Amino acid sequence: MFTIEQLLQPSSLDEAAVMLSENPDLVVLGGCGFLKMGSRRIAKAMDLSRCGLEEIRETETQIELNAMTTLYDIETNASLRDCFDGILPRAVGHILGVQFRRCATIGASVYSKYGFSDILPALLVLDTEVELLRAGRMPLAEFLDKPVTRDLLVRVIIHKDDRRASYRDLRNASADFPIVNAAVSLYRGQWAIVGGARPGKAMLATKTGQELSNLPVEQMNATAVAQQAADELVFGSNNKASADYRRAMFAVLAKQALEEVLACK
Ligand SMILES: Cc1cc2nc3c(=O)[nH]c(=O)nc-3n(C[C@H](O)[C@H](O)[C@H](O)COP(=O)(O)OP(=O)(O)OC[C@H]3O[C@@H](n4cnc5c(N)ncnc54)[C@H](O)[C@@H]3O)c2cc1C
User: Domain residues of the chain, as ranges?
Assistant: First the structure.
């Protein structure tokens, strides 16, 4: 369990911005699920729960997941269950148990760029942007490529469209981290294929996606495309699985996801 010496509770994002710039070592608190795993002594922590960042906001064109939105909010939100074949509720639904998902926040989950993430691959096959307090708004893919800087993730913005999408993961046990995962989407002939838990952070198989996007759907061979994506992505080994096993399993998951998207058309 960690220890906080001083807790700051801004009541607006403007106040949070001032606190962030005045306190170089300030630790931003999400739901504290991950922070609780360590035994850090934190001199100053900032709790965002008075900044009005809890809700999921939907307009005609986008869905905004404010930073303090919990994974359970995402799992149970009616619009997210309807949009993109429910890829987001499906991706978060296997993360530990309901109690945990009611605390863990989307802000921390995206900002931390966890290599084992179930959420990032699913967000990456959608038209997703992130809004940071200091760096402003940018596509999720750009954010993931940038080196980590001290900032605060304000919200995740998903642009609504009629894309079809699918998410698959492989775990040793239901409450374990994923060994490898795959997300696929199709929008107006453009395919996006992402591998996650490689064990590095989520990565787009850009070349495979581009080549596939030029092919008529009827000519697509899901097995061959999934293998091509598996060969394009970089996989590594750790105590959960070897790189070769991950690559082989990713090809299976990606094929299933491609076939599911094709069946939804
Ligand atoms: C035991 C365990 C198992 C897990 N299994 C999985 C899994 O299988 N799949 C999966 O996808 N995820 C998994 N996770 C990660 C989980 O889903 C959350 O992503 C994680 O707990 C962080 O969310 P939190 O709200 O608890 O963050 P916190 O613990 O509050 O914060 C984590 C980090 O993010 C920073 N932070 C918090 N909010 C913000 C913000 N708005 N802007 C900038 N920085 C911020 C904090 O300073 C801290 O460094 C697991 C976590 C744990 C502890």
Answer: 3-46, 56-159, 164-264
160 vs 91: CA distance, rounded Å = 18
For residue 34, report the distance from its CA to the centre of ligand 1, in Å. 5
The amino acid present at 68, given as its one-letter code, is M
C-alpha 33 – ligand 1 centre gap (Å): 6
The pLDDT tens digits for 15-29 are: 999 999 999 899 999
> Which pair of structure tokens corresponds to residue 42?
């934190």
The architecture (CATH level 2) of 56-159 comes to: 2-Layer Sandwich (3.30)
Any ligand 1 atom below 6 A from CB of 108: yes
Domain 56-159 and domain 164-264, same fold? Reply is no
Beta strands 41-47 and 180-187 are unpaired
Q: For 164-264, CATH number?
A: 3.30.390.50
Confidence band of 265 (pLDDT split at 50, 70, 90): low
For 200, the token pair is 């590095």
The pLDDT of 222-249, averaged and rounded, is: 97
Q: What is the pLDDT of residue 232?
A: 98
Confidence (pTM) = 0.96
pLDDT band for position 147 (cuts 50, 70, 90): very high
Tens digits of per-residue pLDDT, 157-188?
999 999 999 999 999 998 899 999 999 999 99
- Report the nearest atom of ligand 1 relative to the CA of 109: 19
